């Protein structure tokens, strides 16, 4: 039996529903299907620039359980798919636009009791919701917070951004700094590790491609093992920034629903 994931990005059990960019490689969608994960293929938002038009982490933020804060101009098809699965869509205040910083209003890296974002440009409705849930905001200068941060658990993160890394360490959190690049994002020089990953179960972090193709594979593997996480490579190619694998539902017994 399915249940809504309580803590965004951090399922406790086997993921059964997730969102990814609908333009992702077919091999990745097929592999997720073989694992019993239903994929909502995010439609493109033509108000964003082409490279990230299908990146769900640009126009929605899973708040908790069935609640999702979503941009007023998020794609209709994606909205309908989420509603069909029983999600409560909370309309954000800010329309996302093509030019930075108008595109980062919902790009917040959420892990347990932390929300990492550029607070100045984050949607005001989303910030209010986070405040109401007593979530600590960690303010950073990097606007593409979720793209840039691979969440490992509520206290551990991987990023190639020096400023984010320093801020996380200053907050007393565990962080691994990796080299930038080596992640495909069509139309741009490269993508980011947060956008190329996401949990598919409580202990397994999936990557959209094969992690061994990244030069920092050994360091990432060791960091994940340190935090008791396994790796799942979704195909054999270079890592691909798909706007994050966003897990939304997981397998639960009736007694836990």
UniProtKB/TrEMBL annotation:
Span of domain DUF6873: 19-246
Domain of life, source organism: Bacteria
Database matches in InterPro entries: DUF6873 (IPR049238)
Name of the molecule in the record: DUF6873 domain-containing protein
